[in-house]
Each structure stands twice: as structure tokens, then as C-alpha cells.
Amino acid sequence: MAMANLARRDELLESALIVIQREGPNASMEAMAAEAGITKPILYRHFGDRDGLIAAMASRFGRQLVERLSAVLAEPASPRERIEAAVGSYVSFIEEDPALYVFLTQQGEVLSLVESGVIERVASLLAGAISDTMAAAGLPARPTETWAYGVVGMMHLAGARWAATPGQSRQQLVADLVSLVADGLLGATAVETVAPSLR
Questions:
Q1: Residues 6 or more apart from 146 whose CB is under 8 A from it?
Q2: Confidence band for 22, pLDDT divided at 50, 70 and 90
Q3: Would you state the pLDDT for residue 17?
Q4: What are phi and psi of 137, to 5 degrees?
Q5: pTM more than 0.70
């Protein structure tokens, strides 16, 4: 795709984001087109349809999320501190734009995040962190990919529910998720240590 077309798509995504932030996750394509100063058919020409726009938005969201998670996971820290940093970063990202997260998860459902590669990229990052934890404990990396996808699924669904119906503070949500992930992961590594025959 030509650079000019990519730049134009980015401009249209910015307009769409403004409308989502203003009107919420049920924002219409008509409103997005109007914000960009174009007609809906022209908007469709760039993205195909609403699902295409959702996929493009999910891809952009994913790039930004992966950049942030990569930065926090690169910091030297204990296994639990790395888990807390990753979960805190993910939840903070949702908190910055809950309308967008609800738009991506309720309008496009999880499929758009899967098809755009967001889930896979985040899981890959977490798999690396989990593998490091396993290696530090002298354990094989066999379950790391399964655990990574499980953690991403948990954060995604818990985060989507929180963004749509925020009934608790960000700090409490992070604490609850960290408790489950860290205690579960670190507890599981202990089980692998004492019961290698179960592998």
C-alpha cells in the first residue's frame, strides 16, 4: 500500500477514534465519515466495511500495546514484579481509552483482536517472560505457550468487562489479576519442581 494511502488511513482512524471517544462504542460509520469530512462510501473504500475498520483499529491498538508491554517486560525485576508490571501496563492501557477497548471487544468481539494478531503478539511477549521464570526455576519451557495464551485471555476478558462496567478501581483490578496470575504461575512452577513425573 502506498505511503499516501497509509497516511490517509491513519487520518481516518484518528477521526474514527475521536467519534468513538465522544459517542461511545456504538458510534456509527456515518459519524466517523462526517468527522473526517468524507462520505460513508469513501470511508468504506479505505476499510471495506465496519469489520475492516475494526480490524485496522485493533491492529493499531495492538502495536501500541505491544510496544508498552515490551518496555515494561524488558526491565530487570523478580518474576512477580514482572507479572505485576505487565498486568498493570495492560490495565492502564485500557483505562486510558475504555470506549475504544469496548468498541474493539463488543463490536468486533475477540475475533478482530485475533485476526489482527494482537492476541498472538501479546501472548508471545508473555511467553518469553514465563519462559524466563521457568528457566530460573530450572524447569522445562513446555507449558509456557499454553500459560501465556491463558493469561492473555484472562486479562482480555476481565479488562473488557471492567471497561464496559467499571465497578472497581484500576488498582484493585490489577491486584486481583496479579494475585491470580502470579500465585498460579509461581505455584505451578513449584508443582513442576516437586512432581516432574506429571509433565
A1: none
A2: very high
A3: 93
A4: -90, 0
A5: yes
**Pair 155, 185: CB distance under 8 Å:** no
pLDDT tens string 108-121: 544 455 555 777 88
Pick the CATH number of 51-194 from 3.40.50.1860, 3.30.360.10, 1.10.1200.10, 1.10.357.10: 1.10.357.10
**Residue 182 · residue 83 · CB < 8 Å:** yes
Concatenate the DSSP letters of all residues of the chain into one string.
--HHHHHHHHHHHHHHHHHHHHH-TT--HHHHHHHHTS-HHHHHHHHSSHHHHHHHHHHHHHHHHHHHHHHHHTS---HHHHHHHHHHHHHHHHHH-HHHHHIIIIISHHHHHHHTTHHHHHHHHHHHHHHHHHHHTT--STTHHHHHHHHHHHHHHHHHHHHHS--S-HHHHHHHHHHHHHHHHHHHHHHHHH-GGG-
CATH C-level class of 1-48: mainly alpha
Domain ranges of the chain: 1-48, 51-194
Residues 6+ apart with CB under 8 A from 88: 72, 174, 178
Is the distance from CB of 158 to CB of 94 less than 8 angstroms?
no
d(CA 157, CA 180): 14
